[in-house]
TrEMBL record:
Keyword annotations of the record: Transferase
Source taxon at top rank: Eukaryota
Stored InterPro entries: Glutathione-S-Trfase_C-like (IPR010987), Glutathione-S-Trfase_C_sf (IPR036282), Glutathione_S-Trfase (IPR040079), Glutathione_S-Trfase_N (IPR004045), GST_C (IPR004046), Thioredoxin-like_sf (IPR036249)
EC class: transferase
Domain (GST N-terminal) ranges: 10-98
Organism of this sequence: Purpureocillium takamizusanense
Name of the gene encoding the protein in the UniProt record: GST2_1
Stretches the record annotates as Disordered: 223-244
EC number: 2.5.1.18
Basic and acidic residues bias (residue ranges): 235-244
Protein name: Glutathione transferase
Any one GO MF annotation of this record: glutathione transferase activity
All copies of domain GST C-terminal, residue ranges: 105-228
Length: 264
């Protein structure tokens, strides 16, 4: 994959993304729209470790210098950034049969907005901080580890309760697969990176497995590359050993600060 230096498409949707939980939001929905309506899109892989997202051509698309971002060349080359804004825009414009969304005058439209906002303001940043303090911080800070891993657990407890008697997060009856689910898929798929086992949340685990059965979800998780881990697949070898070592540190930090799991 050559290093991107600018936009390359002249029509359709152009997706600028990388293999992260937020990046998969856009690629999964685009694959769903492609399967349902024939919507075509072009992808450029933005290697965030190389800071391509900080280059002037990229920040002209997203001033915040983050992935994902899209450019709709069929709508005046409109740039849309932030994963949840991308979900909203793509469904408003291209999900004409409301297969993955809800009509604005439907109360489930507002319910979906609420859960998407909950992901955007809660699960994403909190789980991201858990990943940072557990995996990437140059020093292991017990307070930070137990604080963010514990809050991630609390949030997943809320989601598990929501899904206890439902197949999907929003919608009548047992729910309808929608962008409320898509917003969470990448994060839930990587929860074990925080040392939390998805087995702690059986309803969430069943929901994730149900979503993974969709071909478009499987394809979306390959754009631009598949995730290195999945909560539905046991870690093996050195990766599994590393997670066990880190979990011991997290558990020690929880004990040190008197952490006790509660949700909500």
């Amino acid at each position: 994959m050559s290093r991107p230096t600018g936009l390359i498409a002249s029509k359709g949707i152009e997706l600028l993304t990388w293999s992260t939980p937020n990046g998969y939001k856009a690629s999964i929905l685009l694959e769903e729209l492609k399967e349902a309506y024939g919507l075509q899109y072009t992808t450029q892989g933005i290697r965030i470790g190389q800071n391509i997202q900080k280059e002037p051509w990229f920040t002209a698309v997203n001033p915040n210098g983050r992935i994902p971002a899209i450019v709709d060349h069929d709508n005046g080359s409109l740039a849309v950034f932030e994963g949840n804004a991308i979900l909203s825009y793509l469904t408003r414009r291209y999900d004409t049969e409301r297969r993955f969304s809800f009509a604005p005058d439907d109360d489930d439209y507002t319910r979906a907005e609420s859960w998407i906002g909950w992901q955007h303001g809660g699960v994403g940043p909190i789980q991201g901080q858990a990943n940072h303090f557990v995996r990437f911080a140059s020093e292991k800070i017990p307070y930070g580890m137990q604080r963010y891993v514990g809050e991630t657990e609390r949030l997943y407890g809320i989601l598990d309760s929501r899904l206890k008697d439902r197949d999907y997060i929003v919608g009548p009856g047992k729910g309808k697969y929608s962008i409320a689910d898509i917003a969470l898929l990448g994060w839930v798929n990587g929860i074990n990176f925080t040392t939390i086992s998805i087995d702690q949340f059986p309803s969430v685990k069943s929901w994730l497995a149900r979503c993974w059965e969709r071909p478009a979800v499987q394809r979306g998780f390959t754009v631009p590359n598949p995730p290195s881990i999945s909560s539905l697949k046991p870690q093996e070898g050195e990766a599994a050993e590393k997670t066990r070592e880190l979990k011991k540190l997290v558990d020690q930090a929880k004990e040190q600060y008197g952490y006790k799991y509660t949700s909500p």
